[in-house]
Amino acid sequence: MIWYTGKRLLQMIPVFFGATLLIYFMVFSLPGDPIAALYGDRPPAPGVVEQIRAQYNLDKPFIVQYLIYIGNFFQGDLGTTYSGRPVSDVMAKAFPITARLALLALAIEAFFGILVGLVAGLRKGKLFDTSALVVSLLLISVPTFVIGFVLQYVFAVQLGWARTTVSSEAPLSELLLPALVLASVSFAYIVRLTRASVSDNLNADFVRTATAKGLSRRRVVGVHVLRNSLVPVVTFLGVDLGSLMVGAIVTEGIFNINGVGGTVYKAIKLGEGPTVVSFIAVMVVIFVLANLLVDLLYAALDPRIRYAK
Amino acid sequence: MKIRRLGIPAIALAAAGALVLSGCAGGDTPAEGGNASIITTNGSEPQNPIIPTNTTETGGGKIATSIFAGLVSYTAEGEIENEVAKSIESDDSQNWTVTLNDGWEFTNGEAVTADSFVDAWTYGATFSNAQGASYFFDNIAGFDPEADAELTGLKVVDDTTFTVELASPEADWPLRLGYTAFMPLPSVAYDDMEAFGQDPIGNGPYMLDGEGAWENEVGIDLVTNPDYDGVRKPANGGLSIVFYASQDAAYADVQGGNLDVLDAVPDAAFETYESDFPDRFVNQPAAIFQGFNMPYYLEHWSGEEGKLRRAAISMSIDRKEITDVIFQGTRTPATDFTSPVIDGYSDSLKGSEVLEFNPEEAKAKWAEADAIAPYTGTFDLAYNSDGGHAAWVDAVTNSIKNTLGIEAVGKPYPTFAAALEDRSADKLTGGTRAGWQGDYPSLYNFLAPLYQTGAGSNYEDYASPEFDALLKEGASASSVEDATKKYQEAQELLLVDLPTIPLWYSNVTGVWSDKVDNVVYGWDSVPLYTDITKSE
């Protein structure tokens, strides 16, 4: 397994270069001059734009820009934003808050999703199962921003139980509401995945064997059914962590959270190559690690899966 | 045995998660209640460090005007009041003598002298400093837009006096002196301008609340400057500007009691803000002009035919209906090329009936133009789709389509940069959205940068010697009244030529919480923060 892990980690190197090159090229290819656009309807005196373009190396060909970026990258310099802030500072602010939000959402959706899905799967066709299906269908079909605005209006504006937006310290109590919004859709998917998988496994041979051996219902469900049912759920969670990290733009906007999604969105709009690429590079690493973790968890969950040397 | 293989990773994972969650949340929360009279308001992260001559957008501008005091400042109505200046005088509108009041100091104790202004302006005008607002100094003798040059027009007489020689006379030159670009700088700024901009030292009604007052992307905390003794003396203890990526979040914060004053109601709340905040809202015209331009390089849109078509298009748009339906009355239909908050605005210029909805006349003019050269193809109107323009562009093109019976559609560009690229390169295939927010409250500022031959924002290449001559006469007029008359005549020419089709003025829409009083919005859409009082 160590051998396997090492191999997977080594694979990150080409993925890193490929992804950064591709993303840098995409930002480079965005139409328009990002510096001229900074000034809106009133262009500065002639020459000002050229000087600033030169300062950010935007006057050089694409491959030179990329090599300068990569060269600086390995010296620990991620470049600066168009407002002159080091990208590393921006990352140091955006990632912790997003990581907390994403992990909180992940914990909520995993815990409640698996719990509800398990019960629904065990009582297939009963009232609880039917209501779980209806609720999950509802959550999947209502857009996130509607859920976000409604929860914000009801719990923060009307009832005053929570703060409307998240303050700069972003304690967990304030992140709870946005995390609920973020978790809502994935929660619905997890309920459905768990339910389907549990009801499948209930009829599996190894469950019948376990029951025949005289194991208690608790043990059959907890050890044999649930554990094997978690394989698809864990796969989903691994991918979801990535999308929660970078795809929370809407929720971040509603609750004024200054996280990864909003920062990358703004940087793409401004055409800030170094910012976009640095963020995406970290995202790529997170994705790769999350996938590796998922693959390792498979082995832990399903005794039939083994990683050979 | 088997269960342990699930157990250990699961427990480890849970523990790691808990560590990350709790570890990161370990930041200290400030004590509540210690900020009795601090006004909180919305803002946005400044695009650049706060260097007055490089602050040309509203996010940074709001901060710069709060922490700096220039020669003059603006009242709510856009009139100037002397601040650091004791007098600004000229006999010929070209050679100005500026006298300063005694006793002004920067918050680091340095006295505000003639040098504080002259050095700051020189820095801003110097080519190699690449300051965004450098063109504000272009009328000072010696200014060179393409190389470093000495501003020979600026001369320091003594500590409290300096003279300014303009390249050409400008009767309302003092009007622009309240703009951020003309603020003074302490000498420490020149040691490291970038660093100064992160932690600026000013002489205004507010100052930064110590180290770390400006938290990037989050907000900036200002407190009153105890030594400030100008016309904007704060009636509160400070100003905390919270940066928002979305106005919807800011609006929710006012509703939820986390924000005192908001100066931009989001589109989504246009229908409800008046009932959400009875007696605590504002909706008044601001110094923002919006229209769309027809490029002169397009076939059918120049010469006599072009004039007819421009007038026909203008008269085929039902501005009143669009501002009522799409904007819920948060725009005011245009009657000239400036703004109702600017001294000299007029709703009765000769020829302004071309801005009224008149389908018959529009059809007649269009037919007249067709007699010169028949029009074929589709009329399109370019806009950037990331700026919330789609709704009104569709309404305008529909109005044109229904009145004139031609195909008219919006042409979205993904970003402002993409739209600007085609606009600068003369590659448009039709009209383009155009807008202007006044930098300082003067008719000249709404006309010269946009329609003067070769001017910076005259992208569509309008050129009219008569118009240029009237602008020049206005600028060199001996009194502001005479200047206004000339500027209005110049606009009457524009109403005939229609280089831009005026649509409406954007209003400032704002709401405030019941904790604050005395909230007045200025000509520039920014609340006069210093006058606001707050009770807990």
Describe the structure.
Chain A is mainly α and 309 residues long. Chain A has a domain at 95-301: Orthogonal Bundle (MetI-like fold), CATH 1.10.3720.10. Chain A has helices spanning 2-29, 34-38, 48-55, 62-73, 87-122, 127-141, 144-158, 172-202, 205-212, 217-246, 249-254, 260-270, 273-301. The longest helix of chain A is centred in the middle third of the chain and has 36 residues, at 87-122. The termini of chain A are close together. The model of chain A has no long low-confidence stretch (mean pLDDT 87). Chain B has two domains: 39-280 and 513-534, D-Maltodextrin-Binding Protein, domain 2, CATH 3.40.190; 285-508, Dipeptide-binding Protein, Domain 3 (Dipeptide-binding Protein, domain 3). Helix content of chain B is 30%, strand content 20%. Chain B contains 14 helices and 20 strands. In chain B, strands 12, 13, 14, 15, 16, 17 and 18 form a seven-stranded mixed beta sheet that branches. In chain B, strands 1, 8, 9, 10 and 11 form a five-stranded mixed beta sheet that branches. In chain B, strand 6 and strand 7 (161-165) form a beta hairpin. The radius of gyration of chain B is 26 Å and the shape is globular. At the A-B interface, helix 2, helix 3, helix 5, helix 7 and helix 11 of A face helix 1, helix 5, helix 11 and strand 17 of B.
Secondary structure: elements and pairs:
The complex is a heterodimer of chains A (309) and B (536).
Chain A: H1 2-29, H2 34-38, H3 48-55, H4 62-73, H5 87-122, H6 127-141, H7 144-158, H8 172-202, H9 205-212, H10 217-246, H11 249-254, H12 260-270, H13 273-301
Chain B: H1 2-24, E1 38-43, H2 58-67, E2 72-74, E3 80-82, E4 85-90, E5 95-100, H3 114-125, E6 154-158, E7 161-165, H4 193-198, E8 206-208, E9 214-215, E10 219-224, E11 238-243, H5 247-255, E12 261-262, H6 273-276, E13 281-293, H7 303-315, H8 319-325, E14 331-333, H9 359-372, E15 379-384, H10 390-404, E16 408-413, H11 416-424, E17 431-437, H12 443-451, H13 465-475, H14 480-497, E18 500-512, E19 516-517, E20 533-534
Parallel strand pairs in B: 1-11, 15-16, 15-17
Antiparallel strand pairs in B: 2-3, 4-5, 5-7, 6-7, 8-10, 9-10, 10-11, 12-18, 13-17, 13-18, 14-18, 19-20
Helix pairs in contact in B: 7-9, 12-13, 13-14
